[in-house]
Design a protein that fits this description.
The radius of gyration is 18 Å and the shape is globular. The longest helix has 29 residues, at 38-66. α2 (17-32) packs parallel to α14 (266-288). It has helices spanning 4-10, 17-32, 38-66, 78-81, 86-111, 116-129, 143-164, 169-192, 194-200, 205-209, 211-235, 243-246, 250-257, 266-288. The chain is an all-alpha fold and 290 residues long. It has one domain. Belongs to the MenA family. Type 1 subfamily.
Length: 290
């Protein structure tokens, strides 16, 4: 039976910034529109956290039963390592995704934005079919695009919309920057796993692009945050402070561009996530005071 520590590791805590950052950036953009609501932000955060933990457990289950996690370089996988039974991990995934649905429904009922039920359903479907089902899209190179859409555009703009009932170009800029950095986290993860994913038949975007082009994609996604920061800063000079967060990307970019492989890429996931979180705090805070 898996220990509490193993369950926590299986939830992949290094990915949590992918859930927190878009909500913080969205809250800042909502404040810039004069519509910040702490309890709506909190509900949005609970949705995002429950969703990403559910996604991680669902991926662990699906990859584990397919055997694609049998020989891994990265952190522990519960099913692949044999630490937990597949049914236990599946139950954890369904529980977390169910919690995300409940929190999301509460937010919709409280705000009256019923059209967001469709977005919520799409989020749940995307969470499961990433590696689940007969034809998982994560095995066909669409993982990074989906992360950009759901943990970038949908998460940031959704957080703004449930508070302001509209979105702004600043909110869209935040959504693009956070989505790009969130996708960069997955690119780094899949870059590390190219050898094992190729052997198991898992055709991620990194496998399809190859090692060199995947590294350039990571650098390009990291650069998006610089472009967005400059654009925000030209309109709201205080937003230039977010360039401080961009400095946190210097080392991971150096590691990726330098051709490092295997375990050397593991810290890149953490550092990119932390840079994304710092960017959301600084850019969101700057917009809130704009």
């Amino acid at each position: 039976m898996a220990t509490v520590a193993q369950w926590i590791e299986g939830a992949r805590p290094r990915t949590l910034p992918n859930a927190v950052a878009p909500v913080l950036a969205g809250a800042g953009a909502a404040a810039q529109l004069g519509a910040f609501s702490w309890w709506r932000t909190l509900l949005a955060l609970l949705v995002a956290l429950a969703l990403i933990i559910g996604v991680n457990y669902a991926n662990d289950y699906s990859d584990g039963v397919r055997g694609t996690d049998a020989d891994r370089v990265g952190p522990l996988r519960l099913v692949g390592s044999g630490a937990a039974l597949p049914i236990q991990v599946l139950t954890a995934a369904v529980t977390c995704l169910g919690a995300a649905a409940v929190f999301g429904l509460a937010l919709v009922i409280a705000t009256g934005h019923w059209r967001l039920l469709l977005l919520g359903g799409m989020c749940l479907a995307a969470a499961w079919f990433y590696t689940g089902g007969r034809s998982p899209y994560g095995y066909k190179g669409f993982g990074e695009v989906t992360v950009f859409v759901f943990f970038g555009l949908a998460a940031v703009l959704g957080t703004v919309y449930v508070q302001a009932s509209t979105v702004s170009w600043e909110a869209l800029g935040c959504a693009v920057a956070v989505g790009a950095l969130s996708s960069a986290v997955l690119v780094a993860n899949n870059l590390r796993d190219i050898p094992t994913d190729t052997e198991s038949g898992k055709r991620t975007l990194a496998v399809l692009l190859g090692d060199t082009r995947s590294r350039w994609l990571y650098v390009a996604l990291a650069a998006v945050s610089v472009v967005v920061t400059v654009a925000l800063g030209l309109a709201h000079p205080l937003a230039f402070i977010a360039l401080a967060a961009v400095l946190l990307l210097v080392n991971p970019v150096r590691v990726v561009a330098g051709g490092r492989t295997g375990l050397d890429l593991v810290p890149v996931l953490r550092d990119t996530g932390l840079a994304m979180l710092a960017w959301a705090v600084l850019a969101g805070g700057a917009l809130a005071f704009a």
